[in-house]
Design goal:
GO molecular function (chains A, B): ATP binding; histidine-tRNA ligase activity
Protein name (chains A, B): Histidine--tRNA ligase
Largest sheet of chain A: 8 strands, mixed
Catalytic activity (chains A, B): tRNA(His) + L-histidine + ATP = L-histidyl-tRNA(His) + AMP + diphosphate + H(+)
Helix content of chain A: 25-40%
Family (chains A, B): Belongs to the class-II aminoacyl-tRNA synthetase family.
CATH class of the largest domain in chain A: Alpha Beta
Structural class of chain A: alpha+beta
Oligomer: homodimer
Subcellular location (chains A, B): Cytoplasm
Chain lengths: 494, 494
C-alpha cells in the first residue's frame, strides 16, 4: 500500500552473526583483559595493535588458482584492485609484522595483542562473526624456555583474573612425541614425510575424539573403521592391532608425576629420533617450570593434548578449567578448555623465506569470561548511579549543582534528563538504572534548605518483604540539610 | 628469472593508509581513554560496544539510485546479497542501537563508545583509514541540561587526562542563533526553509574561514565573491552590504562575559523567533554550567563556532587547546580543536519515524594524544624490563628461577631467550629493550652463590660522559648474594 515514493525505512538491526555489547558486558571483559595485560606486561611482553584490515595476500587467504579471497574471511577489492580483508586471527598479522619490521623489533620479540577478529562463517547460537582474541607470542626464540614461559604466564593470567589454583590445569604435550609414536607405529616414514599422510590424519582425529567415543570407538577408527549409532560409517586408518596398540599406549601414557609420564613416553618412542627429541623437550619444559615453582598442581605433561592438527611443530599446550558446571540439559560437566597454543616455526617464512621460531598462546576471551561468571567472579549486577530527580523544571541549575557536587566527591551520579512532568517515570528510570539512591527536592524542601534521599536498595528490600524491624531501624527515606547532601548520600551508600 | 612454479612470496605490508601501533603507542592511548572513561562513568554514562560491521542500509551509505555503497565506506556484499560495511563513525551505530533497543534501554540513554572507525578515503600524511574515536552521547533528552552536562564532562575529561585548566577552553554556540541571524539578514525564510539554501551554505563556509581569510576575505565571500592569490574565483553569497553587516556582527558578538555575549546576540536576532530560542538556550546552558562551577575559564559562549554544516540542530560545542606549539615550519600556533559535538535531533528518526532528541561529543583521540605529547604528559620513553642474561645455557632453570622471583615481586622482568652464544648480543638486546638492569651469573658466580647486577641506566650515563665522581659513588656493576637478588634489583631501580 505504501506509495512508490515513500522511502523505505532502514531496518535497525545488526548484520546476521554480529551483536552489541552493553554496559557490564564491556566493562567486565575490559577488566579481565586489563588484568591479563598486566601479567603479560610483567613478563616483558609489549602490546601490538595491528589494523583490522590486511591485504588478503598477507593473510594467505586466496582461493587456490582463483583471484578471490577464500571463504572464512570478509574481503573486498579496493580501487587499485588489491584484495583487502578483515583479520581472522591475531597470529597472521603478527607474522606480517614480524616480517615487515624484522630489522627494528627486538629479537626475540615478545608481544601481546587483544582485539576483535572476524570470521565469515555461518553464525549459530553463541557463535558470532566478530569476537575477541587475546594472544601472547614470542617470535625468534628457538629455546623451549620460551614455551615454558608461556605456560607459566598463562597460569598466572588465569589466577589473576580469578580462577583459583586447583580450578585449572595447563596441559603440555609435544607434536614431536606424537610424530615419534606415529613413526614407531609405522605410519610415519622420516625419509618420506608425505607417505601415510591420510592415515596419520585419521589417527590424529581419532585421538582427538577419545573423550567422546571412548577407547573402543578410537580403536575402531585406528583399525578398519567405525559405524556410529545412525549407521554412518567412518573409514579407519587401517592400522594392525599391534600398530593400534602403540597409539593407544600413547594416549594412556599419563602417569602420576610428570617424570613418570616422561619416562613412559620415552619408552613408547624408542627408535624414533624425532620422538626422543620431543620427549627431551617435554622434560626440559617441566624442569624449567619446576624451577619457577610451577608444579603439577598447575602445569602437567599430558599426552592426550593434540590441538590444531596441521599447525604446530613442537610443544602444544592447553588450559583447562576443571570445575564443574551444569550444561544445557542440567548435567554436570567440566568447564573445559579456555586457552591453548604451541610452537609454530614456519609462519614468518611465508614472507621472508627465512624460518623464524615462534610460540604463543591464545585465550578464548568469551569462554574465560563465561567461566568467571560461572564462578561468580563476574556478572553481578553493578550498582547504578545516584539519580538526582527533577521536581521543578525551573530549578534545573539547583539540581545540576547537586549532581556536580556528588561527582566531584567521586560518586557516580546523574541528573534525570527526561521529561520531568511525571515523577513516577523518574523513579522508574532510577530503577532501570539500578540506582541506589534518589535525591529529591521539591519547592517546599528548597525553601526549607533540605533534600530528601530515597534509599532505593532498602526500598526494593522492603517491597520484597523485609521485616518491619528493618524498615523501622533504617528508614528508606531521610531528609537532610542541603549542605549535607554528599555526606548523607555517602552514608546511605555505605 | 624465477621459475613459473615458485610461488611469489606475499609482501609483508599493511594496506595503504593503515598502520600498526607498538608498545607505548598502545599503552598511552589506552591510559588516556581509560581516564576519559572513568569520567564518563562518573557522569552515569554506560559503555556500548557495537560491532565493526553494520549493514550499509543502517549506516545510510547507499549511493542514490544505485545498489552499491557510497564512497567513504569499506563495503562488500555477503552471500545473501546484503551489503555490509565497516562503520565510519560511532554515531550511526548508536542511532541504530537506540532504534533497535528503544524498548529496553533506559530513557534518556547516556552512553559512551571508544573504538576504531574506518574511512575509505585517500590516505595522506598523518591521515589513516582506520583511527580511534571516543564519543559520549545522551539520547532521549530534549533539555539543554543534557548539552550543558556534556560540556562540563568534556572539561573534566580534558583535565583528567592532563590538560591543565587554562590550557583549554570549551566554546559553545547554537545553530538556532546562527539561523536567527540568517533570518534577520534575509537569507532564511522560516515559511520556506529550502529557499536561499545555497546562499546559506556559502555564508556558513565563509564564517568557518574567518581565521584563515580575515574579515575582508569573509566580507568578499558574503558579497560578490573572492579572488584568491592564485587568481581562482570563489562565488559569493550575493548579500548586500547591510545583510553582510548583520552576519559580520554575529561573528564579532563575543564579549568579555557570557552574559554580555548573550545580550549582544539577543540584539542581533531581534525579530527571529528561532534566534531568540537559540539565545535563550545558550543563556540556560551558561547558567547551568555556572551553577556547577564551570565558569568562563572553562566554558564560554562563542558565536564563531560553526561546526558540521548540515548535521546539528541546536547547541554546538568545541574544545580548543589554547597553548602554543611549533608547526612544521617552526612557527608558533595554537594547538587548536581536539573535540567537538552538538545536538542532532533527527538521527534515530531514519529508523523509527519518531524524532528522538540527542546530543553528544566526540574526542579526536589522535589529536588529544598528540597534545599530551606536546605537553610532555605522554611520549616519555618508558623503562623497559629487567633482563636476566644467559651465561650458561645448561642452567636455564636457574635463570628462569631468577626471572620468576623478580616477577613475583612485581617487577617487570625477562629472561633472554635468543641464542645465548654471543654475550654482546644479550647486552644489545637489553639496550634495545631499554632495560634498566641486567642480571648476570656465570658458572664462577654460581659456584660462589652470587649474581652480578649491571646498572644500565648509569652505564648509559657514564657512556654519555657522567662525571668520575658519580661513577665512583655509585658503581655501574655490583655483585650481590643470590638470595638478595630481588632486594638488590629493587634498590638499583629506586
Amino acid at each position: 500500500m505504501a506509495k512508490d515514493k515513500a522511502p523505505r525505512r532502514p531496518r535497525a538491526e545488526t548484520p546476521k552473526g554480529f551483536r552489541d555489547y552493553f554496559g557490564a558486558d564491556v566493562t567486565e571483559r575490559k577488566a579481565m583483559l586489563d588484568a591479563v595485560a598486566e601479567v603479560y606486561h610483567r613478563y616483558g611482553f609489549d602490546p601490538l595493535e595491528t589494523s583490522a584490515v590486511e591485504t588478503v595476500e598477507a593473510l594467505g587467504k586466496f582461493l587456490p588458482d582463483v583471484d578471490r579471497p577464500n571463504d572464512g574471511v570478509f574481503g573486498w577489492q579496493d580501487e587499485d584492485g588489491d584484495w583487502l580483508a578483515l583479520r581472522y586471527d591475531l597470529t597472521a598479522p603478527l607474522a606480517r609484522v614480524a616480517a615487515q619490521f624484522r630489522n627494528d623489533l627486538p629479537s626475540p620479540y615478545r608481544r601481546y595483542a587483544m582485539g576483535p577478529v572476524w570470521r565469515n562463517e555461518k553464525p549459530g547460537p553463541g557463535r558470532f562473526r566478530q569476537f575477541y582474541q587475546c594472544d601472547a607470542d614470542t617470535v625468534g626464540a628457538a629455546s623451549v624456555a620460551a614455551d615454558a614461559e608461556i605456560c607459566a604466564m598463562l597460569s598466572d593470567a588465569l589466577e589473576v583474573v580469578g580462577i583459583p589454583r586447583g580450578d585449572y590445569i595447563v596441559r603440555v604435550n609435544n607434536r614431536k612425541v606424537l610424530n615419534g609414536v606415529m613413526e614407531v607405529a609405522g605410519v610415519l616414514d622420516p625419509s618420506d614425510p608425505a607417505k601415510f599422510e591420510s592415515e596419520r590424519g585419521i589417527v590424529l582425529r581419532a585421538i582427538d575424539k577419545l573423550d567422546r567415543l571412548g577407547e573402543a570407538g578410537v580403536r575402531a577408527l585406528l583399525g578398519a573403521g567405525r559405524r556410529d549409532e545412525s549407521g554412518d560409517f567412518t573409514k579407519g586408518a587401517g592400522l594392525s592391532d599391534e600398530q593400534a596398540e602403540v597409539v593407544m599406549g600413547f594416549m594412556a601414557a599419563g602417569r602420576e608425576t610428570g617424570a613418570a609420564t616422561v619416562a613412559r613416553l620415552r619408552e613408547l618412542v624408542t627408535g624414533s629420533a624425532l620422538g626422543a627429541e620431543g620427549v627431551q623437550e617435554l622434560e626440559t619444559i617441566a624442569a624449567l617450570l619446576d624451577a619457577q615453582g610451577y608444579g603439577a598442581d598447575r602445569v602437567v605433561v599430558d599426552p592426550s593434548v593434540v590441538r590444531g592438527l596441521g599447525y604446530y611443530t613442537g610443544p602444544v599446550f592447553e588450559a583447562e578449567l576443571t570445575f564443574e558446571i551444569l550444561d544445557d540439559k542440567g548435567r554436570k560437566r567440566q568447564f573445559g578448555s579456555v586457552a591453548g597454543g604451541g610452537r609454530y616455526d614456519d609462519l614468518v617464512k611465508r614472507f621472508t623465506g627465512q624460518a623464524v621460531p615462534a610460540t604463543g598462546v591464545s585465550i578464548g576471551v568469551d569462554r574465560l569470561l563465561a567461566a568467571l561468571r560461572a564462578k561468580g567472579r563476574a556478572g553481578q549486577q553493578a550498582q547504578g548511579p545516584v539519580v538526582v530527580t527533577v521536581m521543578d523544571r525551573d530549578r534545573m541549575a539547583d539540581y545540576m549543582a547537586m549532581v556536580g557536587e556528588l561527582r566531584r566527591a567521586g560518586l557516580r551520579a546523574e541528573l534525570y534528563l527526561g521529561n520531568p512532568k511525571n515523577f513516577g517515570n523518574q523513579l522508574k528510570y532510577a530503577d532501570a538504572r539500578n540506582s541506589p539512591v534518589a535525591v529529591i527536592q521539591g519547592s517546599d524542601e528548597a525553601v526549607r534548605g533540605v533534600v530528601v534521599l530515597k534509599d532505593l536498595v532498602l526500598g526494593a528490600k522492603i517491597a520484597a518483604g523485609a521485616s518491619l524491624e528493618e524498615w523501622k531501624s533504617r528508614p528508606a527515606q531521610v531528609e537532610v540539610a542541603r549542605g549535607g547532601l554528599v555526606a548523607a548520600v555517602k552514608d546511605m551508600l555505605s
